Amino acid sequence: MLEIITACLWVTTAAGALLALGAAVDRIPDRVSLGLFGVAELGVIVAVAADVALLARGWVTPDLATHIGYLVSLPFIAPAGLALTYKKIDRWGRLILGIAVLIAAIMVVRQIQTLGIPFGYVNLRPANG
Amino acid sequence: MAERAPRPTESERLAPPGPGRLFTLLYGIFAVGATSRAAVQLLERASYAPVAYGLSALSALVYVVGFVLLLRWGHPGSRRAMRTLCLVELTGVVVVGTLSLVRTDLFPDATVWSDFGIGYLFLPAILPLLVLRWLHRGRSGGAG
Questions:
Q1: Are A100 and B25 in contact (CB < 8 Å)?
Q2: ipTM of this complex prediction, to 2 decimal places
Q3: Domain that holds residue A54
Q4: Residue B39 and which of A25, B59, B62, B122 are 20 to 30 A apart at CA?
Q5: Rounded to whole angstroms, how far apart are CA atoms B19 and B131?
Q6: How many domains is chain A built from?
Q7: Residue A124 falls within a domain, yes or no?
Q8: Is residue A67 part of a domain?
Q9: Using the beta-carbon criterion (under 8 Å), do B15 and A99 form an inter-chain contact?
Q10: Is residue A118 part of a domain?
Q11: Which residues of A touch B18 (CB under 8 A)?
Q12: Interchain proximity A84–B26, CB inside 8 Å
């Protein structure tokens, strides 16, 4: 499960970086931007689902309330970005999508940290995993 | 024959231009993050660091007000209100950031503005400066 969450983190980060790059070059079509956004949001949802499965298997977190807070808010970050483009996928719209997706990626990192795994060791399997 | 553009909805009409939409997202995320943080801190251990947690609540309030102002952009006075809010925010970041370094006894636990917002990639310090610049440029250009 940790491997799935970590893979989703990289997928979301890559999609966010490509969206930000798209805003910089201002030459990618709206469909590509929305596709990247969709991939990122799917990554976030899979990361949350994998995390819930991990908790259901009995994973003990140092601070369950904070961890659940991240799990609940995480799926809404990127859609909030989409809503705040106000249906204008122009250069600023793409940047907003990119920043929202990158913030979601940072929150996946925080999600991993609040599982009790220090940042920098996200690819290691802990003793109880 | 040219298609007629759909009439903008109320929320689209009130959307801030350009970077303002990005600032709305950032203020929204900070509003949720800071409010959640302050609520957990105050509900679980208010007596442990009352000054720090009180300031967390103040920062949450600032971000919520900023978010609402940007969501309802275009109303009379929203530009002036946002400018005042950014100055309050910037003052808060500088004062709390400095106090958290020189009076560590007051801050046994961190707030959003501790160490000038280092826990949030210094965005709490950078964000009001960017918004103030955006407001200034908008006024110079005659927009808003």
A1: yes
A2: 0.77
A3: 2-113
A4: B122
A5: 9
A6: 1
A7: no
A8: yes
A9: no
A10: no
A11: 92
A12: no
